[in-house]
Specification:
The protein has 200 residues and is an alpha/beta fold. The protein is built from 9 helices and 7 strands, in the order βαβααββααββαααβα. A hairpin with a 2-residue loop joins strand 3 and strand 4.
Length: 200
């Protein structure tokens, strides 16, 4: 099975790239969505988070705002959060990949903002980075998340630079398009060529 890793900073257009791969018949996995599903459904992960970050488990549910507040300015806490969550995300990702392969699936794509840092990139056949101009990313984040410009700028500043993705990715897709539909069409053409030798 041919596994494509998709990564890049927030607001760059990773979701459009993932949709493009999915439209070609591939399995598409968004690790951020998997994480949020696990926050709801995975009791083991919730217990570990509660043990490490006191007060984040309220009435059986993780208080995401409280968790974000704890890790935002504490690199050690963020590292611990990632250590806990990445192993559960990996387990669920691997389960879905195995199921897809058992069904005869030939191509899969994994979208993760920390694909490289988590070690998941090493399990992919190729890694595609999605980048975009900083101002475009800020505007997209504001529109998508309904946050202030200051908060959007803080999020962007906390992310890896384009140089990081140029250095660690096999291919780079730069989102300089006016609409997500235009960028998605560009991605689809790219992935069609990339997966041309793999039966869907």
């Amino acid at each position: 099975m041919f596994v494509i890793g998709i990564t890049g900073p927030t607001g760059a257009g990773k979701t459009s790239a993932l949709r493009a791969v999915e439209s070609l018949g591939a399995l598409a996995m968004d690790c951020d969505k998997i994480y949020h599903e696990l926050l709801e459904d995975c009791d083991d992960m919730k217990s570990e988070l509660s043990a490490r970050f006191g007060g984040v488990l309220v009435d059986g549910a993780i208080d995401r705002a409280r968790l974000r507040e704890i890790v935002f300015n504490d690199p050690t806490a963020l590292r611990d959060l990632n250590a806990i969550t990445h192993k559960y995300i990996k387990r669920e990702r691997d389960r879905r990949l195995d199921d897809w392969k058992a069904q005869g699936g030939k191509v899969a794509a994994v979208d993760a903002i920390a694909l490289i840092e988590s070690g998941a990139a090493a399990e992919c056949d190729i890694v595609v980075g999605v980048t975009a101009p900083v101002e475009s990313r800020i505007e997209r984040i504001i529109a998508r998340d309904g946050i202030t410009r200051d908060v959007a700028e803080q999020r962007v500043a906390a992310q890896k630079t384009d140089d990081f993705f140029r250095e660690h990715c096999d291919y780079l897709l730069e989102n300089v398009y006016n609409t997500s539909d235009e960028f998605e069409a560009h991605c689809r053409a790219f992935f069609e060529k990339l997966t041309g030798g793999h039966e869907k």
